[in-house]
Design a protein that fits this description.
One of its GO terms (cellular component) is plasma membrane. This is Flagellar motor switch protein FliM. Belongs to the FliM family. Its main location: other. The chain is an alpha+beta fold and about 325 residues long. The chain has ten helices and ten strands. The strands form two sheets. The protein has a six-stranded antiparallel sheet. A hairpin with a 4-residue loop joins strand 2 (about 100-110) and strand 3 (about 115-120). The radius of gyration is 36 Å and the shape is elongated. The protein starts with 6 loop residues before the first helix and ends in a 10-residue tail after the last strand.
Length: about 325
């Protein structure tokens, strides 16, 4: 962020320069000196600001879909929104979460590699309480999960991954699939400790219980599609994509559109005097032999060659040839 001086600071600076307390040449020298920025190789910057903005947009949609899903499943007030999207080493993420937490390890084909959805115990046990008939409160002391509790959580989070698939549709059609549920972060090593990850933090409130849900996406997993996370690609693909229902409705409207069809016997050029003196029985000589086909135009475009005839005592034209795109017009 650019520092902006107040009027008092500007006046003080000018006074210092005029009194000789500060040297203008030294200030110029400081400006021309090379600026050195410290780079920590343990915190490699793999995601640009453009990528972070795109991930934020995607997971803001994920938060909305997840709110709707959990509200329907738990039948209580649920509020989820994105707090922060940042990049940090995987080891730092592991050290920042509780020693006992809910870790949903999953894959998302066609992406290669594993990702993690970490759910704070307060949120997980509030969900369990609601799903098992309670009011949605969290026990004072959080213990290990029983076999039944593990199965219940696995089922609901496996279904919740459908909302992640929906949120990512604008970028890539993924198929998230639960691989395992862990409670100890030390037993979960999906990438090397120094690997950069994108951490999407979701603030979650279920009834009166609050906590965090963290989505950990390693850089190595989404590296093949990083170009699709640019803002330009995100907006272009969103603009081009249409819902199947919209496409079907558009096709039906196009099929009902009326087009003028003209079958030309031929043409001729006469003078205005000849035109004014035409009467019944006169013959106008056309520019085409009788045996040649008729030009059939759709609007002004020549599309078919036809032959004149009669059907049910009515004049008709039979299509005998189709003019392919790029061919020269017939007898032009």
């Amino acid at each position: 962020m650019v520092d902006v001086l107040s009027q008092n600071e500007i006046d003080a600076l000018l006074t210092a320069l005029s009194s000789g307390e500060m040297d203008a040449e030294e200030l110029k020298k400081e400006e021309t000196e090379k600026k050195i920025r410290v780079y920590d190789f343990k915190r490699a910057v793999r995601f640009s600001k453009d990528h972070i903005r795109s991930l934020t947009r995607i997971h803001e949609n994920f938060a909305r879909y997840l709110t709707t899903f959990f509200s329907a499943q738990l039948r209580t007030f649920v509020q989820i929104h994105v707090v922060q999207v940042e990049q940090l080493p995987y080891d730092e993420f592991i050290r920042s979460i509780p020693k006992m937490t809910i870790l949903n390890i999953f894959e998302a084909e066609p992406l290669e590699g594993r990702m993690v959805l970490e759910v704070h115990p307060n949120i997980a046990f509030a969900m369990l309480d609601r799903l098992l008939g309670g009011t949605g409160t969290t026990p004072n002391k959080v213990g290990a999960l029983t076999e039944i509790e593990t199965i219940v959580l696995e089922r609901i989070f496996n279904r919740a991954f459908g909302t992640l698939q929906e949120a990512w549709k604008t970028v890539l059609d993924i198929a998230p699939r639960m691989e395992a549920l862990e409670t100890n972060p030390q037993f979960m090593q999906i990438v090397s400790p120094n690997e950069t990850i994108a951490l999407i933090s979701l603030s979650t409130k279920i009834g009166d219980t609050t906590g965090m849900i963290n989505l950990c996406i390693p850089h190595v997993v989404i590296e093949p599609i990083m170009s699709k996370l640019s803002v330009h690609h995100w907006f272009v693909s969103q603009k081009k994509s249409r819902a199947p229902e919209e496409v079907e409705a558009l096709e039906k409207r196009v099929q009902k559109a009326k087009l003028p069809i003209i079958a030309e016997l031929g043409n001729s050029t006469i003078s205005v005097h000849e035109f004014l003196n035409l009467s019944a029985g006169d013959v106008i000589k056309l520019n085409k032999p009788v045996g040649d086909g008729l030009d059939i135009r759709i609007g002004e475009k020549l599309k078919f060659i036809g032959a004149p005839g009669e059907v049910n005592n009515k004049m008709a034209v039979k299509i005998v040839d189709v003019i392919a795109e790029g061919e020269d017009e017939y007898d032009e």
